[in-house]
Amino acid sequence: MRRHKKSKAQDSAFFWSPLRFLEHELPAIRKKSQNTVASYRTSLNICIDYLEDMKGLRRERICFQDLNKENLKDYLVWMGQIREWSPKTCNLRPTVISPLLSYASEECMDITPGFVSSKTISTW
Prior knowledge:
By secondary structure, this protein is an all-alpha fold. The chain has helices spanning about 10-15, 20-30, 35-55, 70-80, 85-90, 95-105, 110-120. It has one domain (about 10-120). Helix 2 runs antiparallel to helix 3 (about 35-55) and helix 6 packs antiparallel against helix 7. The chain is globular and about 35 Å long. Residues about 1-5 have low confidence and may be disordered.
């Protein structure tokens, strides 16, 4: 079986399409409150802003590959050392990434290695 590599544009489109994760998966399937969904949305937006501002990625081109171990570790450092957020906040903000990657990896096996790799990141 031959695999076709997705283009960055296809990956980016896939990244933005499962944001139905916030609108459907969390409240309907996982039974999360609207406050939890709002918190996840805020945390995800902060991470996307970080990737855009600090990593130089164009927002509309961000994809799951950009949520790699190196970027997530740098994100933790940025929160703690640059933004000087408390360890509790630094641990809370990335909590949205793992369930999002888990959800996406159920939809596309190409994301599974990134999801597994993200699980190995130690927080504060």
